Amino acid sequence: MYLCHERELAEGSALGIDTGGSGQASVFVLRHAGQLRAWRDACPHHGTPLPWRKDAYFDASGQHVVCAAHGALFDPLTGACTLGPCLGDALTPVPLHVADDGGLYLDANDIDPPIPNSKNHQETPS
Predict the structure, then answer these.
(1) 112, 17 in Cβ contact below 8 A?
(2) How far is CA 106 from the centre of its chain?
(3) In this predicted model, what pLDDT tens digit does every residue of 71-106 receive, in sequence order?
């Protein structure tokens, strides 16, 4: 499934994608420290969507993904919760495939409902 082109993601930005046609982002992709990642748009604490408004996944410092519901902070590259009620938990990674032309894709098998605490591998550009 095509998500977007990598040039749509400036450094320190994120983009929510509705993979199921529900009108709500289920996955988000981000660029941080020159690396691309894709995560399920669900806080491990309660499963709620992360942003307080469309595509607002980063905190004001631009260094952490933040859950708007309770302020938990997550490392954007590892998904680990670094502050908040879900310490020890992490965001659920979604394998991201980067095409030679810069297109970002998810495999259709990777957009099923999240498996709690899954440890999926993510491909990033070289």
Answers:
(1) no
(2) 12
(3) 999 999 999 999 999 999 999 999 999 999 999 999
Select from 35, 51, 54 the least CA-distant residue to 43: 51
- What is the distance between the alpha carbons of residues 102 and 95, in angstroms, rounded to a whole number? 15
Closest by alpha carbon to 41, among 32, 33, 23? 23
How far is C-alpha 95 from the chain's CA centre? 10
Amino acid 46 reads: H
User: For residue 58, what are the β-bridge partners?
Assistant: 65
Of the candidates 32, 38, 44, which has an alpha carbon nearest to the alpha carbon of residue 70?
Answer: 44
The model's pTM: 0.84
Indicate the pairing of strand 35-40 with strand 103-105. Answer: unpaired
Closest CA to 2 of 100, 107, 94, 101: 107
Q: Which token pair is 60?
A: 């004001």
